[in-house]
Amino acid sequence: MAQLGQGQGQPIIIMPEGSSRVLGRDAQRMNILAGKVLAETVRTTLGPKGMDKMLVDGLGDIVVTNDGVTILKEMDIEHPAAKMLVEVAKTQEDEVGDGTTTAVIIAGELLKKAESLLDMDIHPTIIAMGYRQAAEKSQEILNVIAIDAEDRETLLKVAMTAMTGKGTEKAREPLAELVVGAVKQVEDDGEIDQDHIKIEKKDGATIDDSQLVNGVIIDKEPVHPGMPKKVEDARIALLNSAIEVKETEVDAEIRITDPAQMQAFIEQEEQMIKDMVNKIADAGATVLFCQKGIDDLAQHYLAKAGIMAVRRVKKSDMEKLARATGATVVSNIEDLDFEDLGLAGSVAEKKISGEAMIFVEDCKDPKSVTLLIRGSTQHVVDEIERAIEDAIGVVAATIEDGKVVSGGGAAEISIAKGLKEYADTISGREQLAVTAFAEALEVVPKTLAENAGLDSIDALVDLRAAHEKSLYMGLNVFTGDVTDMYRAGVIEPHRVKKQAIQSAAEAAEMILRIDDVIASTGAGKEPDMGGMEGMGGMPGGMPPMM
């Protein structure tokens, strides 16, 4: 039992038995250590020459990736401070789609630098204030070094930069063309909803066989073998109610005393279904996508009418079909008319890797498109999909913001240089925190150099010297030289850096301000604090996170 004092010989119980508490410097050291360990875990994946991680879950399923947020999601992380850094990666993924590893390693390095300041007896609140000032100044510097981006060539370079080092190296140019084409197609007044770009993946072919479909691919097949396999100049009906005789909403009992009554009852049901099919045909539809079921008899009548029909289509796919073809999703067959139909140049059943799929193609100015991703094996296709998602995110961010920065560590070195100059204008101990923040940002080019097998110290020295002349100088990990990354085509969206620095700084500030960690559970149950108990005497120990 946790007892915090005694009154008249009786213990005062505050927390239930099994609770644990770590406070003061021990709590700070433990949380900082957890953040550092997590950052080190993903650090080797950064950059074009970053390595991959193989993650195996309890069922034996394997994920091979160097995508930071995927690694952190797949890891079974228990330590509470480490979970806060996982949230940084998830936020980065949701907001931009790329830069997740960058955000986590910056947060880890900020915590590492803060530990040195804590050893100098600088109060955590002072460090947090300094970090906040540095983060605000970083955004100002980012805005100064940002470059306007509007042309398609810049978008292609942004997409290729995002995909470099993610298993798509040999086909990154054609894939970048597909991504930029998809994003530009769904753009609506400068806004891009990435949900309108559907990604279908199938193994059994090369990456070069990937394609952009100006329409929607539905992973289904026609419900009846007698239906046409291909319809040209299709008129498409979208229905979200079942084509079958509905049961009554109240319990009803029908007494039949004559076989003729039974026959009339069956014929009435058939006529109702036939009327439904006739309504669809009379509206002019040649293709039907139904969100719910289609009765066997209705399938027969639809096939006789020459209408291709697909049932149990997902709601999200129905919405994409509506945006791609211009059709209106109808809830009642009686309300269906010609104006509700959508148009597509071709609707055809095609076999991909032995599985039938419906291709709705050649739509006129579709606001929903599909990327069909191909690869040799399932693991390869999965990693290509992650690279494509990152590329879509950065291209969308670039179109929406119209700003980019140089890659290869150029932006981080520029910000670090500006922050060091800014630190000289600050009085008080916050100056040390701002300087530490600047040094922490240099972990990005330093890590790029380390992952490429280069000397990180030499690379940093060369970069700092080069930035006295140009803001765009970054590290070319393939040659080991410091070059103008903007001219080299290594470009990243302004939003990636902005979000990574902001979220990393805020997470580091929050962790630094924690000086007391209390874990409580039900009586008799030991709390799982990810190895937090007993760490007071072992600041150099490693808290288990997995």
UniProtKB/TrEMBL annotation:
GO terms for cellular component: cytoplasm; protein-containing complex. Residues 531-540 have a biased composition (Gly residues). It comes from the Archaea. Keywords: ATP-binding, Chaperone, Nucleotide-binding. Gene3D superfamilies: GroEL, GroEL-like equatorial domain, TCP-1-like chaperonin intermediate domain. Pfam families: Cpn60_TCP1. GO terms for molecular function: ATP binding; ATP hydrolysis activity; ATP-dependent protein folding chaperone; unfolded protein binding. Residues 522-546 are annotated as: Disordered. Molecular chaperone; binds unfolded polypeptides in vitro, and has a weak ATPase activity. Belongs to the TCP-1 chaperonin family. This is Thermosome.
